[in-house]
Each structure stands twice: as C-alpha cells, then as structure tokens.
Amino acid sequence: MSDSPHHRTAPEDRIPIPQRIAYGVGALVNNLLGAAIPMMAIVLNLGLGMNPALVGLLMALPRLTDAFTDPLMGYISDHTQSRWGRRRPYIFLGAITAGILFALLWQLPAGYSESFYFWYFLIGSIIFYLAYTVFATPWVAFGYEMTPDSNERTRLMGVTYFLGQVPWLLAPGFYWLMEWESFAPDSVTGARKLAIFIGVFAVFAGIIPALLCRERMKSVADAEQSMLSGLSEHFMSFLKGFAATIRFGPFLKLCMATFLVFNGFMMVSSFSSYVMIFYVYGGDRDAGAGLMFWNGFLMTSATMVVIPLVTMLSSRIGKKTTFYLAVGFSILGYASKWLLYSPAQPWLILLSTPLIACGLGCLFTLMNSMVADVCDLDELKTGHRREGMFGSIFWWVVKLGIALAYSLGGVLLNYTGFDEQLPAQSENTLLMMRVFDIVVPMITSALAIWILAKYPITEAKALEIRAELEERRGKV
Length: 476
What we know:
Blueprint: H1 17-40, H2 42-46, H3 52-64, H4 66-78, H5 88-105, H6 114-144, H7 150-164, H8 166-170, H9 174-179, H10 187-206, H11 208-212, H12 218-225, H13 231-247, H14 249-267, H15 269-280, H16 285-317, H17 319-340, H18 353-382, H19 387-415, H20 427-452, H21 459-473
Helix pairs in contact: 1-6, 1-7, 1-10, 3-6, 4-6, 4-19, 5-6, 5-10, 6-19, 7-16, 7-18, 14-18, 14-19, 14-20, 15-16, 15-20, 16-17, 16-18, 17-18, 17-20, 18-19, 18-21
C-alpha cells in the first residue's frame, strides 16, 4: 500500500514559515465568512420573525450561482496578466470587498415586512458571494502553486487546514454573543455589531496572503496568455478548459473520494443529534443539546490534532497510504458507535469522536495537496496551468455534495418513521436512525478508499512529472 517515499524536500522548495502562516490566514478568513452566515441566520427567524422555510431558501439559493461563477473566476484568475501576478490582485480586492459587503448584509433595518427582508437578504447574499468568490477561488489556486514539491504541498495544506478549523470552534458561540445583553440589547442589533467585527477582520486578515506570499507560475502563465487574444478565443478556451478538467481521470477520483468521505459524514450528521436526543436521553432535548455541543467541540479539536500527524505521516509513507489509514480509523469510529450509544452512560459516545475525526483531519489536507499534483500532470499532458479551474470545480463539488447531503439526510430521516410531534420515538425508528447513522458513512468511506486505490500519482510519479516539466519549460 505504501507509495515508497524517499524524497527529501530541497531547501529552495521549502515555503518559509511566515508564508505558510500568511497563506493559512486566508483559510481562517475563508471559513469564518463561510461559517458565520448559517450560524447567524437564526436571527432572521427568531429576531425578525421570518418563516424558517424562507430562511432555509435564503441559505441555498445564493450558492446555486457558484456552479457558474466559481469556474469562471478560476478561468479569469488562470488567465490574468498583471505586474502583481494572476492571483494576488483578486485576493486583495476580493477580501476588502467581501468584508465590507458582509458587514453591510447584516445591517437589517427594523420594522419591515417578511418579503422585504427576504429580498434584501437574497440580493445582498448573491452580491456578497460574488465578492467572496473573487477572494476564495484565486486564494485556493494560489496554494496549489506555491511550491513544486509534493510533500511541501502537504505541509502547506496542513497549516492551512489547521488554521481553518479555528472559525468552527468560534462559530457555535455567535448566536450566544448576539443574544448577550452586555453586547447588544437584542439579537438583531447583535447581528449588526458582530457582522462589523467579522467584516473588518476579513478585510485586514484577507489581504495578508496577497501581501506576503509569492507566486511561482506567473512567467509560465504569461507565456501561455500570449497565444490568446479576443473575447471569442477566451470563451472557447474557457469551454475547452472546463471540459478537460471535468474529464481528467485522476482529478475525478479525488473529487469522488472527497465527495464520499465528507458528504457521507455530513449526510448523517443530523442523525447523530437525533440519536443523542431520542435514544440516549429519551427525548430530553436540553440534555441532548449539551452532548451535541461537546461532541462538536471535541470533533473540531481532534481534527486539529490529527492534521499535523497526517502531514508528518504522509511524507513518510505516502499520501494514499495515509489516506487509507486515516479513513480506516474513521470507519472504525463509526462502527464503534453501535456499542457506545448508551442511555446508561451517555458520554461514552465521545470515545468514537477522535477516531471519526481522523478521516476529516486527513481529507482536505491530503486532497488539496493531491489536486496540486494533478495540476502538474495536467500541464504535462496539455501544456496549460489551470490551478484556478481545478480548485473551483473541486470545491464546487464539495458544496454541491453538502447540499445533496442535507437533502438526502432529510429523506433518510423520514424513512425511519421519525415524527417530531411525538415526545418519544418507536423502537423501530430508533433502530433505523442508529443504522443509518453508522452504516451510511462506513459505506461511503470504504468506497472512497476503493476509488483512490486507482489514483496514479505516487511521490515517485510526482517527482518524475516535475522533472519533465522543468526540462520542458525551464526551472521556475
């Protein structure tokens, strides 16, 4: 199973620690903006009286535009020529614009109708997400090209994903802060104030990668752009690049494996909550909520511990083998829940959480590093650098999967016979809830391992690809 790694990263291929942290700060901003909206959206219902169904619609509709805007922004970033590079100008301007728009989005005036709030927030969200895409898509692509070394890419993504976990530790406290009387007299005012703090932070922290990180592939991209002229040529180039990306076999394997591991987890994430409330605590929602909080806190904390371990291990035994081991531990964690869900000892279930976190901790650390390797293989085969296109489609697949996971999760919950009007659920319903909660992510994780077994880029192959590229275009 090992990739038989033996390569040591050359000093010139190392990313200086300040640059690793500077790039990782981008993940902190990216995830903070991504996590804040759904966590703060409860104020639309509880503070402004909007129908929960409309609030759910507001969370989903703006993201549908990502299917078009993400790849388009990836292409624009890939094909930009400027004295500052092809990523940094967009990261700089996108961070400033997204931060300002986020703050403005939550300055909701009081005393208006539900229809007014719906259209205000919908239009504002669409505009905000456009600015968010201008920041996030080039930022993701930037990370793929910061080093030509396969193992150093994993180290960079390890730092990035670690810092990106911080917002998920903070986000559960956002609504509490908005309701805290010492912070604001009501939750709507609290949302206005909190949004300003988040927006200002996004502006100043978001520009850090643009200011401190170095682009490697500017000269290669500039040479490629000299062959294109006119809107029609760019339009055809975009279509060809998009088609080539979604047909590229190694990349599709990474997308499918990520989709299965992450969205298998997401699909049944709600099941864990229902099992804790109705099976472990017999319908006691307050007690179940406490256990849910500590389970979520432990999941994020354990993920942060796993990330550096995965980073270190992958440089010794290879990315694929590390993925197999980490996801294998998460499968073991899912299976152990059958024994650890205990009404007599509710806190036993937390023993499974660190094992499940192994799969999540390895996933985006390794997958983003492997997408960067795929970009090299794509250049070798096609002669084009398409980090922006690959990154935008990869993350769009993740976002699409999240939407599908929530939808299918609701379908599965209905299939169990769950009835929210009942104070206690039937034995059959509780059994089916536990079965889905455990079996579904085990199956999707096992399928991901099977799919990735056919992924062709080992460390030796990555070194070979790099050598051929540098011979073809000169060392950059």
